[in-house]
Amino acid sequence: MAALSEDAQAGARDCGTFMLELVGTFAPSQVSMRWSDAPRATCEAVDRLIEQTWTDHGARAERDGLMFFDGPLCRLADWSANNGALVLTLGPVSYKEFLGTNATHANLRYAHGSEVLADPLGVSAAMTTADHFVLLGRRSHHVVQYARRIHPVGGLVAPSETPDKPPDPFTTMQAELDEELALPVDCIASMRCIGLVRDKHTAQPELILDVAADADVTAIRRAQKDAADACEHTGLEAVRNDAGSMVNFIEQRYAELTPVALATLLLHGLHSWGTGWFAAARGYCRSVI
After folding, report:
1. pLDDT confidence of residue 11
2. CB atoms within 10 A of CB 288
3. Do residues 16 and 284 lie in contact, with contact meaning Cβ atoms separated by under 8 Å?
4. Could you tell me which of 287, 177, 164 has the C-alpha nearest to residue 230?
5. Angle subtended by helix axes 243-253 and 259-273, to nearest 10
């Protein structure tokens, strides 16, 4: 990994339910993507497990009415941060590979090395509203992972449909906001990347994006009911965007937060109110930053 600029910090740090790999502030113009055609490493035992997991979960999805389909994704092969720029090296992988490795058998990394994991890159939004709230979603029972838990709006980065155009996490986030919330691009005032984390249970990498919306909570909730993927959420959780309210929300709803939801709130707070707030919000993080 390249040397870091003064405003970014890297190196995996244990934050309890997630690993914090990168802290920094990167505008879309400061994030670039490289493509590598190299597939993830594998072996016969891992491939068999992926196939069996897909079969088992397919039967469960049909029985329980879960959202379940395969599709191409972008594996995070490497990344570097230097001189105020973040460079992501992405490669091909599929949802099927993700389900059979990170999502259900992340412990494969201990027997076969982390290279066998699909490691699809995800994006999660710390979305602030025009009336000064931070919005998260309440996942429905139709999703495969973390059903009924509080989780940010976002998704997994897929390859670009335009030839010779690299995948873009910011474009992915715009699409997810439209599909999950019916929030159009012209209602997004700004986006910036504020960190890279991994859910400790799945080891899947996630870019955390600060997203400022030109809409209030009431308008977003109203529009969300008619969103294309409205079934992913049963509702939206709103927390006032101030230091005290955020600490109270994390402490009171901690058991309901997914690891990435906790990471999203903590990184938003870190960039909004500083390292002192970050340490106070979660005592176990006191020595992390």
Report:
1. 67
2. 18
3. yes
4. 177
5. 160
Question: 76-90: per-residue pLDDT in tens?
Answer: 999 999 999 999 999
Could you tell me where the beta strands, DSSP code E, fall in the chain?
9-14, 18-26, 31-35, 72-82, 85-94, 122-128, 133-139, 150-151, 154-156, 188-199, 205-213, 233-240
Distance CA 276, CA 43 (A): 46
pLDDT band at 7 (very low <50, low <70, confident <90, very high): low
Q: Give residues with Cβ within 8 angstroms of 240, minimum separation 6.
A: 132, 133, 134, 246
Q: What is the pLDDT of residue 2?
A: 34
Alpha carbon distance 138, 229 (integer Å): 13
Whole-model pTM? Answer: 0.93
pLDDT at 122: 98
Domains of the chain by start residue, with CATH: 9-282 (3.90.79.10)
pLDDT at 118 over 50: yes
Is residue 92 a contact partner of residue 159, using CB atoms and an 8 Å limit? Answer: yes
Phi, psi at 195, each rounded to 5°: 170, 170
How far is Cα 82 from Cα 158, in angstroms, rounded to an integer? 25
Tell me what pLDDT residue 285 has.
Answer: 44
CB 255 within 8 A of CB 149: no
CB 118 within 8 A of CB 76: no
Token representation of residue 133? 């709230």
- 175: confidence class by pLDDT, cuts 50, 70, 90: very high
